[in-house]
Amino acid sequence: MCEHDSSDDILRGSELSRRHFGALGLGATLAALLPAVAAAVEVSESDVEITTPDGTCDAHFVHPAKATAAVLVWPDIFGLRPAFRAMGKRLAEAGYAVLTINPFYRSIKGAPATRDDAFGYARTLSATTHVTDAKAFVAWLDAQKAVDKHRKIGTTGYCMGGPMVFRTAGSLPKRIGAGCSFHGGGLTTSNPDSPHLMIPQMKARMLVAIADGDDQKDPASKDILRKAFDDAKVPAEIEVYKGANHGWMPPDSQNYNAEAAERGWERKLALFKKALA
User: Fold this and answer.
1) 245, 255 in Cβ contact below 8 A?
2) How much is the pLDDT for 19?
């Protein structure tokens, strides 16, 4: 999982080269890696700031002109960067109002400069901050004209964002209609605040996409999840993506797997179409 792996979360190229490669140029390059959205709608995007109990979070908001269902995106351990802006825009072009947040706003604005920084900032977060942030971000979304409040909200997370998805869905069951975890780390632990213990509180449909390598390291996790979802009668699709390593979804990851990423994209859109209509 992302908290423990030594190499699975390295981005393409060095930190130095990424800093010297302009954000706009990098964003365009990464967007070009993602297939075009069929019948894409025109969207508007902006940088926004959101007040939380612990400060001000910088985020990226992109949406169609017509009010629609919202999706809250929790990035992986490398934070809010061009890859996740591109991914958020692509989802918005499919018809959603997408908010991608900086999970490390308490420590830094924007993305971490180095891998060590990222892991250090991640250690400052907790189950408590996940929930307080989720409530602040959902309240902000519900105040936007671009968001149709009569429709449920979706949430999706990657790597360390997987637990945040579980805690968002569990702490806001009346608003969250769908949740997706992609190569989520630490979903089932022996701790009293393990993310999977939130499942009985959920009212959302869930998608849990597991990296092949993660499953080999912890094969019991998927079984724990299946039992928890079944016991709580929460509809969930749980799949191990064979041949896909941890971090396969973001296009700037060294483990990016285009075929598996597109399967994840298709399953996510199918879930949102069913749960957020």
Assistant:
1) yes
2) 43
